[in-house]
Amino acid sequence: MPEETTLSAASAESLYREIERSDWARLARGMDQPLTEAEVVQLRGLGDMLDVTEVREVYVPLSRLLSLRASATKRLGAEESTFLGEPDETTPFVIGVAGSVAVGKSTIARLLRELVSRWPGTPHVELVTTDGFLYPNAELERRGLMDRKGFPESYDRRALIAFLTAVKSGAAEVHAPYYSHMRYDIVPDAHTSVHRPDVLIVEGLNVLQPPPVPHDVAVSDLFDFSIYVDADPAHIQRWYTDRFLALRDAAFSNPNSFFRGLADISDEDARERAAYYWNSINLPNLIENVLPTRHRASLVLRKGASHAVETVLLRKL
């Protein structure tokens, strides 16, 4: 069995071009850096070390690659419509961003939204997270899933697929449920609206999951390009702990926070609590559900201990 697992991993790796950071960074030569340092600071999440150099050397070339892919997809759609004798109704280019809790995928999704929106022609770009498709806490409690929040079964997968199908079909306006990180729950009667974007970025833990039932539709079937943000689990645990401590000093102190009771605990207790959450929920979810989907991505960003991308894996066409 271990030999089969190793062979499978090796086979998956062979699907990609492996590009070292220095070689990838050279692709940025001659490209404009569209974001200021202040804008980069505003985009990064708690504990993330994103800076202007990282944007210029990693994400500007990635944005250019996405531009090429989106343009090629649009051109192919137009040519196919011409071939069929139908009007050109090019659908939105959908980008999925997956990876562990605390690996920085939310920051990357926000950053790509800014970079992509500054392509020539200023395309209309929107971003949604799959948090809005978590079942409400009351439903999770009814199903006995509160301790498995973030696992695939805690999401309304069919609602997410219906949402993406409507977007890809060119609907003028599509609504997604709204999730409040402060409340740690879906907000009733609130929603996020998507208005026929040129590009839609979908960020979430499990967006590359295969369907639970054979022959069913996977969320990733509706993506035109997908990115997996990868790092050593030991590094991610440290980033998770650092973020937990930062949240304790900030968001948890809000009277409306679901975690208000953790705002006054000591550093030692906070680290113990973070370790418990990581080892009992986030690491098992990473190992069992998130990491096994890495080979399904179009591109993998491998981060080192400093949160900086060290290697890029690009799936061969």
Strand content: 15-25%
Which strand order do you get reading across the main beta sheet?
Answer: 1-9-8-7-2-6-3
The dominant shape is globular
User: Total strand count, please?
Assistant: 9
Q: Notable features of this structure?
A:
317 residues, alpha/beta, 7-stranded mixed β-sheet, 9 helices, 18% strand
Give the helix/strand layout.
Elements: H1 2-13, E1 16-20, H2 21-26, H3 37-43, H4 52-84, E2 93-99, H5 105-116, E3 125-129, H6 137-143, H7 157-168, E4 174-180, E5 185-194, E6 199-203, E7 225-230, H8 233-249, H9 267-290, E8 299-303, E9 309-315
Helix pairs in contact: 4-5, 8-9
Tell me what you see in this structure.
By secondary structure, the chain is an alpha/beta fold. It has nine helices and nine strands. Strand 8 and strand 9 form a beta hairpin. Helix 8 packs across helix 9. It is globular, with a radius of gyration of 20 Å. The two termini are 30 Å apart. 35% of the residues are buried.
